[in-house]
Predict the 3D structure of the following.
Amino acid sequence: MTTITVAEDASAVTTRKSVPPKGSRSSTTTALLMLLPAAVLLITFLLVPIGLTFGLAFTNARLISPRPAEFVGVDNFVRLFDDETFWKSLRNTIIFAAVIVPVQSACALGLALLVNVKMRGVNFFRTVYFLPVVTSMVVVSMLWLFMYQKNGLINQVLLKFGIAGPDWLGDPKTALIAIILMSAWQAMGFHMVIWLSGLQTIPGDLYEAAELDGAGTWQKFRYVTWPGLRQTRTFILITITISAFALFTQVNIMTQGGPLDSTSTLVLMAVRTGFQQQQTGYASAISLAFFVLVLAVTLVQRYYTRDKDVA
Amino acid sequence: MKLTSTTTRVAVGLLAVALPLSMAACTKGGSSSSSGGAGGGELTMWTHNAGNKGELAAITQIVNDYNKSQSKYKVKIQAFPQDSYNQSVVAAAASKKLPCILDIDGPNVPNWAWAGYLAPLEGLDGTLSKFLPSVLGKYDGKTYSYGYYDVALVMVTRKTILDKYGIRVPTVDQPWTKDEFTAALKKLKASGDFQNPLDIATSFTGEWWPYAYSPMLQSFGGDLINRNDYKSAEGALNGPKAVEWAKWFRGLVTDGLVPLKSGADPAKDFINGKTAILYNGTWTAVDTRKAFGKDTLFLPPPDLGNGPKIGGGSWQWGISQNCSDQAGALDYMKFAAQDKYVASVARDTNNIPATDAAAAEVKGYEQGGENQLFLEYAKKFAVLRPVTPGYPFIATEFTKTAQDILNGADPKQALDQAVKNIDANQKSNGYFQ
């Protein structure tokens, strides 16, 4: 490990040296110019909307109305914390994230280990596992909607084993689980590829050395692969968590938050309130609550991952 | 060499900046060209029926006739898919880019009129007095829209089924009573011949829920809101009658008379014999008649206490407030309100023609025709959805509440919550005064 870092540093130094100091002023301009498109997009589609959300959350702004928005203080938040659907949505969002992060990353790692072998046809499997990712979420949701029906494919298969399957999406007890399984299946391929790239950065001589020391398969995984994937792990943890909190498409297509709010999420609630019910102010309050939640989780994650980086 | 590479980088950077900007400009240009007919007598028209060939063709015919009939104005059609239509209108209205002429789902008319999207139709009172009242969009004493057709809700079944199980065929004057209806469904269930004794098409989404199920609530004697002043839903949506409706509604599922979730195409389930009685709009008439011919019955919905009720009001046409040429738009609206066009649109969409003169021209709706009873249902049983700008909110709230009740939520609690939300919304809008 140490030798590698030193080598990397050395090469970094040489590249830096090869850049002539003369060009530095013009490369600042270039850098700024390169930054401009991203900055324009970020400001227009991220910073401005976030700013607006902060402002609108304290008004009674409406999507369609001849009346101007009025400042209503924390009314929206009082109403929000009194709203049962909000608490249910919050609970569902947290359960979804708490389950899908370990499940999806573990399954993706399993797949990555499976396809990280040198044999003929491995590319075929890599493609197959990656297919759901390139398929539109809307299409995937529609397909699973049929499969989850009471006499759909999944229950027919279960019936072969003598199990009478539930009405997956129609039962408040199973609806969220059904959505979690389907979402994990859909996104798994993407994280498999990231794990795979992580696996391939681990140099083969480390495994050779471990083998010489008499390490078994599990020991090789535990002491070579796992520590070697530290950076990848952090990345995967953060990306899955963020996408888990933003859960919307599947729910919107498959259950619309039902039955009995068992699959309602914060984003779904915000969209429903803001567009169908036209309450821009209230929807902004929901978005703000969501923003705070994601911010808190991200800060906690950053704290933990930074700690390990230093070590 | 160095210089060139820097220049290239700058060029690429500039290109990267220019690209999204030019794309933004493109979309902007696209929408501004669709704005209300500023350019030389061109009137833009928006319609929701891009996915509905029959209706779009009928409307296109009217527009072509109009464009040929005079040379002052030229109407240009832009069709949208129904799913995204309302959002497109709201977005266009927010940026003051509404087309001159547009179609609107009936219950949304008060909301859009109140918001100032729509301009009243002036000088058409004479023509419109011949239209069914349920196809006119009115708000605050003014007419903002008219439709070519209405739809009736019916109980579709077959005469052979009713005869086999000894169930009386109900009529307009003597519909099924609640007890009779329940007994009939229980009999059908007991026979075991049908997977669903009754199918109320719960798999449909969106506006279907308030359109189809609030008439049942009204038939019990409840309503979505108090219609005397449209200020509160208290007592209407959570009174004893409404709770009774909710219990009955849930009971349909717990007694196994109605599937909690219908199949993707309930009409197909009926045609395939899975369902004994199908609750649906008259649009199913074509397919079901094709399958069963004269055996098909289109019965009035049951009288659940307060007489049979069906939803009234379908898609309607109006003109926008920000249209630069109101006179031109009104001229088109007058031209398009002719009986022959009412007839052609109703014929091509298999719906109920909005005027009697048009009905006489459409096959099936002539005196003694097989569809005449649809017109009769529409005239006798139709209840407009609440005429208040708060309707879109009420609709989503009712949909969610009805879904929760069907899934087993406590009826009184669910209805109380809906009333609380609706009242809060009405109040926060100053009761739409």
